[in-house]
Amino acid sequence: MPAIRPRAAWVTGLLASAVTASLLTGVPAHAVVGEAAKDGTYAFTAKLDIGGGQRSCSAALVEQEWLITAASCFADNPAQGFKVAAGAPKLKTTATIGRTDLTRDGGVVANVVELVPSEGRDLVMARLDQRVTGVTPVGVGFNAVLPGEDLWVSGYGRTKDEWVPDRLHYAKFSVGTVNDMSLGLTGKSGDAVVCQGDTGGPAFRDIAGRYELVGVNSTSGQGGCFGSDESETRKGAVDTRVDDIAGWVQSVSSRNLLSRSDWKNAAYMASGYFTGNSAGAKRRMDLFVAWKDGSASIFQGADHNDPKPAFSKEYKVAPAGSYWKDARAVTAGNFTGSGSDGITVRWASGKLSTYTHVDQNGFHDEKTLAYSDTWKRARLITAGRYTANSLRDDLIVLWDDGSTSMYSDTDTNKVGKESQLTKADKGWENAAQISSGEFTGGKTADLVIRWNDGDTTIFPTVDTAGYHGRIRIRDVGSPWKNAQILTVGSFAAATNRPNDILIRWNDGNLSYYPGVDAKGTHDNEVQLVG
To answer: Are 129 and 121 in contact (CB under 8 A)?
Structure first.
């Protein structure tokens, strides 16, 4: 006898005993027999109403516009398989997210407008018609699930004594078998069972209050569920794995992330590892953006290998009208060698300061480097690796008279150790943007300058002695004269060498050029917006 109740038997029993709308699921939906969740607990869990009460499933919010759930929820005949077509669902589907108690008015109610199935799995991504705010999406775990590992499962379906519960329930399970596409789960307590009414519910890790999705409910034995055969004793469940295709989930859920913003309103950009440790980074660089209205965002670098969705999520780190409206030049660097990267800012007041560490929670450990009218003349700044140590903590400054200076090891010396690189030069007044990067593989970093006429130049291996030649990567009159903001980082892959150049164009489009080196940009533009 198979360990899991056949899908066809579920459907037959379901239709034969159809009494309420919640029973007309037509799919092997599950619900968690366990503890009733307190308000706000596991708020990323969503309830799906498919076809105006014809079916009921659960799901998990993985991004503000995206849910993940079981494909069988949308299949024409789940008894014959879970294959569904990409595109709009055939039946109107409504999702309720962030409402632990369904009798209340909290959370968000949205329509599912697009399905993106995973080939060969009982798994589908579902795009909503609006962004969900006020609910933190569940993270997607990239670490492999191990036998014996404990997971939590949550859902809205049938319990041991309720046909249609109004409150989210959850329970703890242990991982038994780990197969190529599925997980076998066993409840940690006698009443830990998944039952009809909640296919697609999440199985996730709880790491000190940080949740990581690793699976989605697919089938269950249903022993102990209300209305099930009293002779049924099997309580095990099978979940579809997510951990091994976490990159695909992230790629799908982030594909429209950047296009939500009006990039004409981006005032400053800087790249760094803000949402993770710089040392041995395993994913692409994050992008800090200060917007013209004074708000600020961090776009987290993606973990997957798809070049186009270079970022996976947005964190709002400052509201409109904040002090960021007074920023006049911004650059990012690694100033301490540990923890997240930081940001150095030249403010309108003449203050030069560094937030030693910046992350998704904001700006930390501000250190004032200088404060005088002299610093109002600092037109452009960039932090990079220009001295013997490996930190990106040396600051190059382009002054309003065309002179340039380097300030070494600013975390230690502030601006007390200056090297003048060039004297006042009218030609340098035509520099539109400067940024530090690793393009030539030298002992120190390189400086890239985009000039007003479109000419773009790399100055290789800059150090305290000055500039050592120049390499033109874009000619005078090139389309790069329309580059409004330029920043350098690892956007195509983690710790990418040579670096990539990301540009916000004056028409609001956004793109990057991967692997820029002494031979140029190689015309490998990756369009992100536009």
So the answer is: no
Length of the chain: 530
d(CA 335, CA 436): 14
Spatial distance between the Cα atoms of 246 and 251, rounded to a whole number of angstroms: 9
> For residue 300, how far is the Cα from the chain centroid?
5
**Residue 470: Cβ within 10 Å count:** 12
* Spatial distance between the Cα atoms of 66 and 123, rounded to a whole number of angstroms: 13
Q: How far apart are CA 450 and CA 435, in angstroms?
A: 9
pLDDT band for position 235 (50/70/90)? low
3-state secondary structure of 328: strand
* pLDDT digits 0-9 by tens, 369-403: 999 999 999 999 999 999 999 999 999 999 999 99
DSSP per-residue string spanning 452-497: TTS-EEEE-S-BTTB----EEEE-TT-GGGGEEEEEEE--SSTT-S
The candidate with the shortest Cα–Cα distance to 399, out of 373, 420, 380, is: 380
Spacing of C-alpha 353 from chain mean position: 28
pLDDT per residue over 3-17, tens digit each? 233 232 222 222 222
Maximum Cα interatomic distance, the chain, rounded to a whole number of Å: 89
pLDDT of residue 36: 58
As a whole number, the mean pLDDT across the chain is 88
pLDDT tens-digit series, residues 439-454: 999 999 999 999 999 9
Residue 128: its H or E element: strand 124-128
Cα–Cα dist 330/269, whole Å: 7
- The dihedral formed by the CA atoms of 100, 104, 106 and 112, expressed in degrees to the nearest 10: 80
Give the rounded percent of residues in the chain with a pLDDT score beyond 90. 75
Q: Which of 160, 205, 198 is nearest to 183 (CA)?
A: 205
Cis peptide, bond prior to residue 514, ω within 30 of zero:
no
User: To 5 degrees, how large is the angle CA 513–CA 244–CA 116?
Assistant: 70
Q: Which residues pair with 431 in a beta bridge?
A: 451
